[in-house]
Each structure stands twice: as C-alpha cells, then as structure tokens.
Specification:
two-stranded antiparallel ribbon; 8 helices; two-stranded antiparallel sheet; about 280 residues; about 5% strand; mainly alpha; about 75% helix
C-alpha cells in the first residue's frame, strides 16, 4: 500500500470501528434500558458518513473508475425501482414515502438512495472477500464467469435483504413510508409489510451486483487484497445491524432484532471468524 492509501485506510477503519464499539455498547445498554429515540437528522448524518467511508474504501481497493461505475449503476437501478414502486406499485408493491425523510424526487427521498448505496457496497465486497474473489477476479471463462457472478450476486442480494427484515418494521412503525393495504410481515405494525417488498429488494440488488460483476468487472482485479482493509469491511456490515437494532430497541420492538440476529448474525460471525483466523 502507498502511504496515502495506508493513511486513508487507517482513518476510515478507525472511525468505523469506534462507531461499532459505541453502537455495541449502546445495544447492550438498550437490552436493559431502552435509550431515547434517535431522530431522522442524526440517522441521515450517519448514513451519509457511511456512504462517504464506503466510497473511500472502494477507491482504495478498486480505483476511481470502478467506484464511479458501481455508484452510478446502483444509483440508477435503485432509483428506478423505487420510482416504479412509489408511482406505479411495481417491483416492491404499492407504497409511498412521507415527508419525514426529507427532500424527494418523483416521490423518492434522496436519503433512501443514499442508504441503498451504503448497504449494497459492504454486502457486495464482503461476498467477494469471503469467497476469495478479490484475488481470483471474475474471469472464469464465458460460462464460468456467468455462474460465479450469479452465485456471488445471489449471496450479495441475500446479505442485503436480511438487513431489510429488520429495517422495514422499524420504518413502518415510524411512518417513514406507508404500505397501501399493509402486508403479511409484522401485520401488527400499522398493517405490516408485504412479502413482495423483500422479493423486490432481493431482485434489485441481484440485478445491480450481477450486472456489475458480469459486465463491468469480469476481468477487473482489486488493486490490493481486501485483507488490507478487511477490519473496516467487517465492521461496516456489523454496524448496519447495530444501527437498526438500537432504533428498534428504543421503540420497544424486539422481535425484528431477534430475526436480524438469526439472519445477519451468522454472516457477521463468519466474517469476524475469517478476520481473526487470518491473524492467528
């Protein structure tokens, strides 16, 4: 690593690790005494910071070109699917956002697109790291590349969707968005969330991840092994769990936290096991 990249890597890793530690302490405290609810402005600030950290992390690992490609492509797909859902009831189901999430374009809050970017990136790179694709790349021949990209994109979509199993009940309870007609998932919280939402999340992230791997990054190699910044990556994904879990506990809603522990938990545990195993 160059001195500049080493310095930036240390800075963003330090910031994210400290945030994870504080979030974990808050999580333990909240198990016994629910903390005050964090407002949208503070949550938005945290999400924007994580996006910035993720972009820096991506530039260090993949360079500006592939970082810009990934950000733009995921932005376009995420905005398009949200626009279809809000305006036509397609992809995710019929719903609308409320004014609580701030400025919008065609009914889609800017904060939501920023959040998409922030959660897809660590899921995508975490899969590459766990599968060793940062060293092998995606070029396994015409058919092999498609199969590898398909499997990796499926895992990425799964890693992202299980996070939404926690997020949507929280957001519905806070009235950040409203599902028209409710749904089968947590029906007791303002009518619930339709299962189509999770199919929508999975398919949208799959399209982003598969297309990037199969088209844009087939012969691209990481500039350096993810191991060099793996502490940041593992902490980043872990932080998404604690962030939502802490808000849920402050609302007194515990079941989605248990669901997150049994869905995101094994992924987080596997990532930490690999991180420490490589340092033994």
């Amino acid at each position: 690593m160059s001195r500049a990249s080493d310095r930036w890597g240390l800075v963003i890793t330090f910031l994210v690790v400290i945030t994870v530690i504080l979030s974990a302490i808050q999580f333990v405290y909240a198990l016994f005494s629910p903390p005050p609810l964090i407002g949208v402005p503070m949550i938005a600030t945290g999400i924007i910071c994580l996006l910035i950290y993720g972009i820096i992390h991506s530039v260090l690992l993949k360079g500006w070109f592939h970082t810009v490609i990934f950000v733009i492509f995921s932005f376009v797909i995420s905005f398009l699917t949200e626009w279809l859902g809000v305006n036509y009831g397609l992809w995710f189901g019929s719903y609308n956002y409320t004014e609580l999430l701030g400025p919008m374009a065609y009914g889609v809050p800017f904060l939501i697109i920023v959040c998409w970017e922030g959660v897809i990136y660590p899921s995508h790179v975490l899969v590459d790291w766990l599968a060793g694709l940062d060293k092998k790349g995606y070029d396994f021949g015409p058919l092999g590349s498609v199969i590898v990209s398909f499997l990796a994109a499926t895992a990425t979509a799964l890693f992202t969707t299980v996070w939404d199993l926690m997020t949507d009940p929280m957001a519905v309870h806070l009235r950040w968005w409203i599902w028209h007609g409710g749904g089968e998932y947590f029906r007791s919280l303002h009518g619930g969330v339709p299962l189509s939402n999770f199919f929508g999340w999975f398919s949208a992230v799959f399209v982003i991840s598969f297309t990037y791997r199969a088209v844009f990054a087939r012969k691209a190699r990481y500039k350096q092994p993810i191991d060099n910044f793996s502490l940041f990556l593992v902490s980043f994904y872990t932080l998404w769990f604690f962030g939502v879990a802490n808000v849920l506990l402050s609302l007194g809603i515990t079941l989605p936290v248990f669901i997150g522990a049994f869905t995101m938990g094994p992924i987080i545990a596997l990532a930490w096991v690999k991180y420490f195993a490589q340092r033994l």
